Amino acid sequence: MSKTERINSITQFRLMQLRAVLGSAKAGLALGDLYENGVLVAKDLPTAAKYYQKAAKKRNAAAQNRLGVLYAKGAGVEQDDQTAAHWYLESANGEDPDGMTNLAKCYLDGHGVTQNYALAAGWLIKAAEAGVHEAQGLLGGLYLSGLGVKIDEKQAFYWIRRSVQGGELSANSALTRIYRQGGGNDKDAREAFAQTEIAAKRGDPRAQNDLGVCYAVGMGVAKSDGDAALWYGKAAKQNYAVAQCNLAYIYIEGRGATENPKMAAHLWKLAAEQGYALAQKEYAICLEHGAGVKQNLGESTVWYQKAAEQGVVLAMVMMGQAYRLGKGVPIDQEVAAKWYVRAHERAEEIGIENLNEIDRHYVIVAQYNLGWMYGKGQGVEHDEAKAVHWFEHAARGGEKSAQRNLGIRYSLGKGVERDEEKAAYWFGLAAEKYRVAAEAGDADAQKEYAVCLSLGRGVEKNLQEAARWYQKAAEQGNGVAQTNLGHAYSQGNGVEVNYEKALYWTRKAAEQGQARAQNNLGYYYENGKGVAQSYKQAFYWYSKAAEQGDQYALCSLGEFYRDGKFVEKDDQKAIECFRASAEKGHPEAAEDLKKYYGIDVD
Question: Who's near 28: CB < 8 A, 6+ residues apart?
């Protein structure tokens, strides 16, 4: 700069200072820019903030936005998301597109304001129409996901393409997703690839990751798993979480690199520790199943929760599973139910039809479990109407057990008005699904299809066919099927009476802990059916079943204590057993209490 130019610059700077002192918001904004960027003066963020503040108070929208940025970063002022959001709002109301974009980002992330996708979308629309490329990319992403707006792939492609053409590299990943779904054309794809490649070769980690995606899916370039792994690796080395996650998938699937679950788990951990929700979910799965890392259910739940708190549907369901089953946390059915509801609500917000197949499956699991919990009063207040509500959600998603439960409830008028036509409809759907799965060799489906055949639920009643399917499931070790097959042989249901076979299958089920089989085995021993009579063995198996709350076994134990059969006569214990059995609905136990002890059961 020549001496004359330097003098002119100093003169202009002093004039700006004077105008700012006299109250010019435009001059205040200009001075703030100079101090923030170190132009003509030494970089001084507190002074920049002071000038921005003066201009902002005079309603200069650009200064309000810049002041908001400083508060968001804690640059020259104390970091304060709420104050940042305040100034972004003032700027947006003043029609500054950058202020609109930053305010929208606050609503997207819940920084300084309550998270609100609808408000975010509203401001992004204004900023995108004003030409802000970052806003265009973000808006396109919302149209893809259905957050704050209805899903609209045409609008998504329009805005994301405009964003990429404007040089916004962050929109490339979303554009790639659209191409994978059939949007755009080859020319657009080649243009997107070329722009991404330039930035990637300059070392931008986001662009390197996006270039990896281009190679992975063949967008604008020939598909190459090796090149995808190469570019993911470059971005991953710069600690870019998305690339670390993508590279982990490469190692899991063995595409473009040797399969290496341990390296995949390591990469997911690195990305998870940066707060990347998808990686948190994947690392939690590794810990749950011991894939690439030592199994640790407690730590797995910690990472599931981190991902769940960021809105990952599968992670929310897994939190419900953890608390329902005690996987890494103490069993807490109430907390489990809350997580299941959150998973359902999040899926509804996104649009269940927009979830991938795995996530949809787990949402249906959550819905079914809620139906079951309301039906049992487990973790929630017993409510048959709500049980029907949740079973219907799961049943419409194709869950055959939910369909069967709905059939039962419509058949009995339980939680819903009795309707045999609807019962038949749901039983029919369930039976067909069970049949298909049964023929594919699924033991549980074989057992359930046998139940349908034995009761005539959704199919014509056929005890012979039922016994055949019970046999198939029993041979695969299904305890319920073994119990039912043993009972069929004892009663001649679809097979000839054969107490030797009845005893064989009943014992197998009893040894697996099936309460009904344990009770039946006790009955065989008590009455010498297929085995030498033994009150000792009868008492043993009745006791096993009673410990699980089996009402029939409890009643039988009451009789043993009442009559002093094998054990010393004990009326108090007899009363306790009869009462417990009666409270579970066994009519004979209630009759015995009344007949022998004069006790009525409410």
Answer: 20, 51, 52, 54, 55, 58, 60, 63
Q: Which pTM was predicted?
A: 0.67
**DSSP string for residues in 302-349:** HHHHHHHHTT-HHHHHHHHHHHHHTSSS---HHHHHHHHHHHHHHHHH
The identity of residue 494, as a single letter, is G
Tell me how far apart the alpha carbons of residues 138 and 163 are, in angstroms, rounded to a whole number.
Answer: 9
User: Both tokens of residue 358?
Assistant: 């795995």
Whether residue 143 has pLDDT greater than 70: yes
528: left (phi over 0), alpha (psi -120 to 50) or beta: left
Q: How far apart are CA 354 and CA 392, in angstroms?
A: 20
Residue with the two structure tokens 């598909």: 223
For the chain, what is the total number of helices (H) and then of strands (E)? 32, 0
Compute the distance between CA of residue 136 and CA of residue 144 in angstroms, rounded to an integer.
12
71-75, 167-171, 404-408: segment of lowest average pLDDT:
167-171
Q: Are 538 and 522 in contact (CB under 8 A)?
A: yes
384-396 and 357-376 are packed helices; what angle lies between their axes, rounded to 10 degrees? 160
- Of 476, 524, 480, 477, the C-alpha closest to 498 is 524
CB 28 within 8 A of CB 63: yes
Q: State the alpha helices, DSSP H only, in 58-152.
A: 61-73, 81-93, 97-109, 117-129, 133-145
Query: In this predicted model, what pLDDT tens digit does every residue of 558-575 receive, in sequence order?
Result: 999 999 999 999 999 999
What is the C-alpha to C-alpha distance for residues 264 and 146, in angstroms, rounded to an integer?
A: 31
**189-to-136, 169, 209, 331 alpha-carbon distances in Å:** 18, 14, 16, 51
Report, in this order, helix, strand and coil percent for the chain, each rounded to 5: 75, 0, 25
Q: Vertex 364, ends 359 and 366: CA angle to 5°?
A: 95
Rounded Cα–Cα distance for residues 36 and 49 (Å): 8
DSSP state of 59: T
C-alpha–C-alpha distance, residues 346 and 210, integer Å: 28
Residue 98 backbone class (left: φ over 0; alpha: ψ -120 to 50; beta: rest): alpha
What are the tens digits of pLDDT across the range 67-87? Answer: 999 999 999 999 999 999 999
Q: Are 562 and 588 in contact (CB under 8 A)?
A: no
Nearest to 300 by CA among 318, 287, 282: 287
DSSP 8-state symbol, 373: H
**How far is residue 406 CA from its own chain's centroid?**
24
In one-letter notation, the amino acid at residue 49 is A
DSSP codes of every residue in 178-243: HHHTT-S-HHHHHHHHHHHHHHHHTT-HHHHHHHHHHHHHTSSS---HHHHHHHHHHHHHTT-HHH
Classify burial at 602, counting beta carbons within 10 Å of its beta carbon; exposed 0-12, middle 13-18, buried 19 or more: exposed
